[in-house]
Amino acid sequence: MSADPDGIEPLFDAIDGTAPLVVSVPHAGTYLPPSIASCLTPAARALSDTDWYVPRLYEFCGSLGASMIVATHSRYVVDLNRPPDGAPLYPGMRETAVCPAETFDGRPLYSRGAEPAATQIGARIRRYWQPYHERLAAMVHATRARHGRCLLWDAHSIRSAVPALFDGRLPDLNVGTADGRSCHAETRRSIETQLRGQRRFTHVIDGRFKGGYITRHYGRPSTGVEAVQLEIAQSAYLRDETRPAFEPAVAAPLIERLRTLLAALLATRAA
Known about the structure:
The chain has 6 helices and 7 strands. It has 271 residues and is α/β, with parallel strands linked by helices. It has a single domain (12-270), classed as 3-Layer(aba) Sandwich (Aminopeptidase). A 7-stranded mixed beta sheet has the order 1-3-2-4-7-5-6, sandwiched between helices. The longest helix has 30 residues, at 118-147. The chain is globular and about 55 Å long. The protein starts with 11 loop residues before the first strand and ends with a helix.
């Protein structure tokens, strides 16, 4: 496992499983290397844009035999779901960069004059972004080699209302398949069938969030690798999004829905 060159914290936790499923959690980390933390504003150090408790939501994946990789560092260090060359994911729409300089709400992350220079951004990509993707790519390759196929599930969450990024409130479950390009049509239909068959959680497929870099880069159905992003509105499992605390009883219905969905996808693709 790669270690942080600016501390002792590993860059990610990874578990290799036996099923044709790889779960990636790139934005739930909260660690800030000291050299970066010292440059952030006090408000930024609250890490308000974290995908809170997403690994807890997917703890059941071990029982499905899934491989799993979970980043430990904050997305403010480097955004693992953005292309390293800075290319836009949603042309014409506001989005944060591979090394973000502002929060989702548009507030500056860095104290005046402490923003990273281009050379520092390049160094962060090499130190923090590249090792995660090397490990993720190896997991996907090994899974496809073993099973002839791989479903990469990119797991995220976000506050249900972020006016600077989207209007109104998000549906509970926001599935992204790059408009159907990152997975087989059968997989997309299976997800839609599963989500339409329940009434507790609202959903949309390829709405505001169509999948970020991970979904679009790794999802190549013709090669046996499918990728799907799920962006969960945090109101679906947190009682209070502004002061997030994980309450198992509150999150239990969502966890069961996720378990049912992923188990059904594994069964569908095995048939």
